[in-house]
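Hey,

Quick one before I head out. I ran the complex with adenosine-5'-triphosphate overnight. Inputs first:
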Amino acid sequence: MNIEGKKKLLLISTIILLLVVTAYTIVSYYKGEDYKEISYATFIEYAKDGQVSEIELKDSPKLTGKLSNKTAFVTDNPRAENFKEQMLLYDIKVIESENMGLIDRIIPLILMVGSIGMVVYLVKNGSKQAEREMENMANNIDVVNSMSQKVTFNDIAGNEEAKESLKELVDFIREPEKYSRYGARLPRGVMLYGPPGTGKTLLAKALASEAAVPFYAATGSDFVQVYAGLGASRIRELFKKAKKTGKSVIFIDEIDALGKARKGANSNMGSEEGDRTLNALLTEMSGFKENEGIIVLAATNRIDTLDEALLRPGRFDRQIEVGLPDINGRLAILKIHSRNKPLSKDVDLEKLARETVYFSGAKLENLMNESAMIAARNKDKLITMEHIEKAFLNVLVGEEKKDRSFISLRDKKITAYHEAGHALVAKKISPNNRVTRVSIIPSTRGMGGFSLNIPPDRIYKSKKDIIENIMIALGGRAAEEIIFGKDNITTGASSDLKKATEMVLAMIGSYGMDDELGLINYEVVANTNLSMDTSLIKRGEEILRHFYSQTKTVLLDNIEHLHALANQLIRKESLNEEEIEELVNGIQNITKCS
Ligand code: ATP
């Protein structure tokens, strides 16, 4: 039992004891009511008669005693000088208890006052204790002195875009005054999202240490409390602390635990309690002054489940994806985690990076650590490839089957051609389209891989723009069909087809961009009682078919570039803008991947 528990037990025992003693004293005091009241004259008569066995002498107006037949009596106290002697002469036992009367009255009073005092103390102390408990819990929130645990951006590899975004904030935190002079506002909240173990916590820590400010870390579940209002008050405590320090980084990991979309039942807490906690967070975030140099970072694996209120302007309005590392990222991470390890010359980190597809940073760190432990257990001087291979198996054992590290080369090839198809169509049909990244590493946005296409910024979209976007969306499926054959097309294109269908229906049904259907707006038609004409669907399907065929032509005309892109994707897993540009425009002499 802890000290608090012991104290509580002691207090409870004391109060019970007090109550019992009080009750006993009160009962015995009022027991007097059973006494037979007799007059003083009668008493003297009884005394002379030898009928009184004992009396109790006290300094009070009444005198009590017992008759020989055991009857208790009470009579007036004469308080005469030789009264005692006289009684003794009557052979009566005299019990002297001079102050009994006073004590009798005072004891219950003391006990009662004591008990009441104790109750008041307990109630008061209880609430103080609850306050203290809340404070203690808030104290549990790690305040990491970022200076003592220096993590720099150099300790994080493979997330260049995320790192760049956060590096910008370092200066904001260091010198908010500089920005406020220009009327610039410090972003309040940054949401880091991506698969587990990709370095979100590490990035947040690095931001704090590079800005040389304290780092307050908490987890969403710290705020999910059984007691009503405790979650909200912990949030307030956390912010109070941070505000006291001034410039700082607050990090809330697993924010989904408290910020789940409100419509769904939150299994962890009553939704009312959840709302209260979430509202407290939102209020605190809008509460601090704009250029105080406090920034709140949150992390989640599931940005899609978050309450939208969290992502609105003034809250976590900057969202940064932290994805799984590609082959170069993995190599860099492996290098970071072998810095202080004695590696044997036969260790080929590049090969290891190639073999660890879909490994997160945390898993790679685990792999190197496990290897070091095996080497240490064997008392070998250096960590060899053999140790690493053993560790590799250990790391994978117990992994779920669906673990993507086991992805087959065939699946990798399908994804590579699919993504290359999107990228190539984008580049070939319109040179104004920028393709900034293609990857076969899954992103939170899609299952297979992704191709990031930035269309030129325009207020109005032309029919040509929409058609281009439809063709880019169809590029993945078209490439699959060309390379693997009609019977081997996959389910990977489902979200592309959804997008293409949405675009084509909007083009012909909302924007009046089809000669055949004319200018009629089908949304209006759908909202009236007129029976829905199926011609929209028929026409949409016709148009999709037409553009699908055109997309295939674009790919077939540039087939060597498709192979080149896919080939490099299989090797490097992700390509940046220059690499894509080079592969798409260069003279290629590469044939289909084997
Ligand atoms: P979770 O979503 O599970 O909270 P996370 O994304 O916050 O995970 P971290 O806790 O930052 O991941 O990473 C765990 C450990 O994995 C780090 O301490 C570090 O050793 C290693 N690690 C993860 N990503 C990287 C990276 N990009 N570079 C170097 N090390 C990394």
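The CA atoms of residues 124 and 499 lie 63 Å apart.

Talk tomorrow,
K.
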